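Hi again,

Forgot to attach this to my earlier email, sorry! This is the prediction with 2BA bound. I've pasted everything inline since the attachment limit keeps bouncing my files.
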Amino acid sequence: MKMVIAVIQDKDAVKLMETLVAEGHRATKLASTGGFLREGNTTFLIGCADEEVEDVLRVIRTVCRAREQLVTPLSSAAGATDSFVPFPVEVTVGGATVFVLNVERFEKV
Ligand code: 2BA
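Structure tokens for the complex follow:
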């Protein structure tokens, strides 16, 4: 069994959940925040059989779009960190950042 963890944009979350469920996959959706943009994004936990991973990835690729986003400067009052950006830059966000992990044990109790 595998656990697919996918960080996606909020805009794609409803459609991704609908499509995954319609195609017989199970998923949990979590609200998350990106460390760089410090904006909300959505993290999906999708537990599936090894042979289902490619289908899950296909659905994610189909639904999740890459978008350009302008990063505005953060003031020092907002709390500068190592990721402080001193001038506006355009970044490409998404379609999805995906991790596929082996599941050592799965139980429903
Ligand atoms: P954020 O950390 O808010 O990053 C948003 C976008 O900003 C990234 O899009 C990337 O284009 C850019 N970016 C991030 N860090 C950067 C840096 N140090 N310098 C220049 N540009 C940078 P994506 O790569 O599509 O990532 C979207 C979201 O996926 C991230 O939001 C974060 O929440 C998650 N993510 C990406 N890589 C990750 C990783 N290795 N581990 C955990 N989460 C990750």
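The first strand starts at residue 2 and ends at 8. The chain has a mean pLDDT of 91.

That should be everything now.

G.
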